[in-house]
Design goal:
- The chain is α+β, with helices and mostly antiparallel strands.
- Helix content is 37%, strand content 18%.
- The protein is built from twelve helices and nine strands.
- Strands 1-4-5-9-8-7-6 form a seven-stranded mixed sheet, sandwiched between helices. A two-stranded antiparallel sheet has the order 2-3.
- α7 crosses α9.
- The two termini are 58 Å apart.
- The structure holds 3,4-dihydroxyphenylalanine.
- 3,4-dihydroxyphenylalanine (DAH) binds next to β8 and β9.
């Protein structure tokens, strides 16, 4: 404790007042942010090296006799100030500082646990329904070739069916044969092809994933969105299996009261094709604004795998040195595809698709 002893030039009242005011100020400064109470006590009141003791000795030594009393009184006052500060520090709860450890009485910092994004949650719910039926998950790339996204799915080059899926293509592909040109996949259906080329039947897969279309964003469209695809190929798979499977899946997702109905439709890679509608979950089929007073909500596309798709698959399997495995006389199958955003919007009553991508915590927290 090699503190400097302040200089006391004079022993008249005003010099004493000024000198003690400086000391009192020093004490106040230290007590304002008192961390180590014991160090403060030792520094000021330590018996041998305490500041009061050292300063007292120094100033008394050369004090004229008549200054001893006023000096002593002022030292007593200063001592009282120090003792009061010590008493207060001991009564108060410890302050939290980086130096002196943790104040266990402070409330903890609240950290909200993370949650699944509502789209991921819906996607996982859909996938889980099919896992329970024995399906496994398959994934594929978002940057896809024309062959997988279109050609093998029986979209012939320049066929108008391609126009229904406004495709985002990668630049600089013109030199390649058209089937090798790269694009952003417009649906998850190319993973059907990838899986069948890699594996012989039986196949039961669901394919969750991101897809891209050159669509203008509006309340129900986004250029990037999500689908879950399904494919089941085996011996003796019939349209009844398709109906039973999707009817079960819709009941598992929307509640056991929903009914399904199948409408004739067209997709190049299924024949016959159907659109699946569920009875409106908002009005139980009576008709309301949400179902445009029809009592039904259109939800997904499906159909029996077109033999032309099996033919493309076998052609490629053989071309890469494998065995054909998809003879349409022996194997049949069904496929389906659904939009995750659309299902999430219906399940949760969301009217603006953009809410899913906004990152607005007030929206997202509702799914916690
Ligand atoms: N790929 C279709 C689309 O994005 C959806 C679809 C329809 C998938 C019928 C299928 C299916 O597997 O069988 O519009």
């Amino acid at each position: 404790m090699n503190e400097e002893i302040p200089n006391l030039p004079n022993y008249d009242d005003s010099s004493l007042d000024a000198a003690f005011a400086t000391l009192a100020e020093e004490v106040r400064g230290e007590t304002a942010s008192l961390v180590d109470v014991e160090a403060f006590r030792l520094r000021w009141l330590g018996r041998k090296q305490g500041r009061l003791k050292l300063i007292g000795e120094a100033w008394l030594k050369s004090a004229p006799p008549e200054a001893r009393k006023p000096l002593g009184m002022r030292f007593n006052q200063l001592k009282q100030q120090i003792e009061a500060a010590l008493a207060e520090a001991e009564a108060a709860p410890p302050k939290r500082t980086g130096k002196a450890g943790i104040d266990v009485t402070l409330p903890g910092s609240v950290r909200a646990p993370g949650i699944e994004h509502p789209l991921l949650k819906t996607m996982n719910e859909i996938v889980r329904v099919f896992h329970h039926l024995g399906y496994s998950t398959a994934l594929g790339p978002q940057v896809e070739s024309d062959f997988y996204n279109f050609e093998a799915l029986n979209f012939p080059p320049n066929h108008p069916a391609r126009d229904t899926q406004d495709t985002l293509v990668l630049a600089g592909q013109q030199a390649k044969p058209s089937r090798d040109r790269l694009l952003m996949r417009t649906h998850t259906s190319p993973v059907q092809i990838r899986t069948m080329i890699a594996e012989a039947p039986p196949i039961r897969i669901v394919v969750p994933g991101k897809v891209h279309r050159n669509d203008a964003a509006d309340a129900t469209h986004s250029p990037v969105f999500h689908q879950v695809e399904g494919l089941c190929v085996d011996h003796n798979i019939t349209f009844s299996d398709l109906k039973g499977t999707l009817d079960h899946a819709m009941k598992a997702l929307f509640g056991s009261d929903v009914k399904t109905r199948f409408f004739p439709s067209f997709f190049p890679f299924t024949e016959p094709s159907a659109d699946v509608q569920i009875s409106c979950i908002f009005c139980a089929g009576k008709g309301c604004r949400k179902c445009k007073h029809s009592g039904w909500i259109e939800l997904l596309g499906c159909g029996m795998v077109d033999p032309a798709v099996f033919a493309s698959v076998d052609e490629r399997r053989v071309a890469i040195g494998g065995q054909p495995a998809y003879d349409p006389a022996k194997v049949t199958g069904f496929a389906f595809g659904m939009g995750v955003e659309r299902i999430a919007m219906i399940l949760h009553g969301v009217s603006e698709i953009g809410q899913f991508y906004s990152g607005d915590m007030r929206f997202l927290e509702q799914f916690a």
